[in-house]
Amino acid sequence: MTYINTGSITAIGIIFSVLAIISFAIRASGWRRYPRNLEIDDILIIPAALLTIAAGVAMVIGAQLHILGNHSVPAITRTEQDQLGKLEYAFWMGHVIDVGLIKLALLFLFRRIFKGTAYRTTFDYANWTLIILVSLWTIVFFIFEIFACDRNADASWSTLYSLRHICMDTFAMQTGFAVFCWAMDMAILIEPICMVIPLRMCFREKLQVCLVFCCSIFAVIAGFLRMIVWIQIEVQDTTPQYIKILATILPTVDQEGIVSIILFWTYIEMGVGFQADD
User: Fold this and answer.
1) pTM, to two decimals
2) Which of 23, 72, 114, 229 could staple 256 via S-S, CB 3.0–4.6 A?
């Protein structure tokens, strides 16, 4: 038994979905109460909210089907393998788009707050660089997710053997995605703080403003934990009898247990990231 079980999977699926609905409802009510033209960050947050909620629903359904939060020891059945693989395949594609939209919404929000009257500033260069990097990163990894197994999409969920031998190295791909994602989180955390420091404000006022933007540090922590999960999986691979993920040791054949931990921390990153954005 680990801290990842059907109860915890169901809980985070419900909690972050409800929080996403509440946060979006508050923002929408603000649009009605204080009418203004919708900005780019307002538009981007709409599909981000829908994808965050959809991922939460998928987590709950997976837990109720006992393919998430469960253990496949001594071996996973054909039906469980098929269900788990298809859920994971859809989840990863939605995840790429969701985290990309969340990061872009934050970056465009910063533009709205810090954009000056000057034609080109250091902030413009830094902000647009991050926007371009996040956009390209989202598109590239989304394409990788779709064509990871070339034209044999079913190899993604058929067996672990087909995933590791027919498809590209998806473990390395997900590890690279997690590392780049965390690096972008750090950049997004630092950017507004760098803009606040030069302002003509007393130290206390600067600290108060920085603390508001530092809410995204929770997304950085969640992304860091997910990155560690993927690095551990990539380093250990699936050849040893047991695999250690964070503080949890599982048999390598326990595909449901391993995938459950991965998706648990991935959805926490999505949920926390959306809350930091909203």
Assistant:
1) 0.89
2) 72
